[in-house]
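Dear Dr. L.,

I hope this message finds you well. Following up on our conversation about the binding site, I have prepared a predicted three-dimensional model of the protein together with zinc ion. For your records, I am including the exact sequence and ligand specification that went into the calculation, followed by the structure tokens. Please feel free to forward this to your student if that is useful.
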Amino acid sequence: MTLRFAALGSGSRGNALLVESAHTLVLVDCGLTLKAIEARLGSLGRDPRDIDAVLITHEHTDHVRGVSAFARRYRTTVRMTAGTAAGSASRTLPKLETFNCHRPFEIGDISVEPFPVPHDAREPCQFVFKAGGRRLGILSDTGHITAHIKAHLAGCDAMALEFNHDAEALWAGDYPEHLKQRIASQVGHLNNVQAAELISDVVDKRLQWVVALHLSEANNSPGRVREILQDALGNDHSAEAHLAVQHEPSDWLDVV
Ligand SMILES: [Zn+2]
Ligand SMILES: [Zn+2]
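The resulting structure of the complex is given below.
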């Protein structure tokens, strides 16, 4: 094992993901309550004090809800872009470090490669994590796929990828019109077809698994996502399909 991943929870009500190497543990987003973060870390066999840094992708509440309480209790370093820091309550953080989302940096033995994404926040980004020659890509909260995103995610050994909504279900559903427009826009969220297309575009023999993130409870269904994801991975391919859910953590997934 060189890298492993787990979702503490993922969906429109809160997101928090773990990336771990032999010597380093990173929390990506902290959008659950402090209590939920502590409990779910415990159920995955980790202590809050094990976390070397929290990385924040953007300032939307479902990604930062618990970050201030967590960082103050455990004196954890929190890292985000300057735009995200300007757009959030970053003054309450005990140790804040900003990064340039075009420049890789290290946390312990993990190399972090941030990249910007089109989403309606101040300076949103997502990440590729590298350790021991393996690459794990995380992509969520993006309205569409840019050439720059594809270039970063090409050749990943594993991927955690937003499958936010089914476009038909969104337009047929009960959300107010302005919210539907926002979600479906170029700076909103990825629908199932966009996510599947990305996989078809960047998939190669290296890909070991894909975990679907940020499923909308109102405008998507786990069964539909699983079907589309498995289709995108193809029958002749050995990559596994997994789903992260809102109310409980996933299992640990190893990148071997
Ligand atoms: Zn979100
Ligand atoms: Zn967002």
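In brief: The chain has a mean pLDDT of 96.

With kind regards,
A. P.
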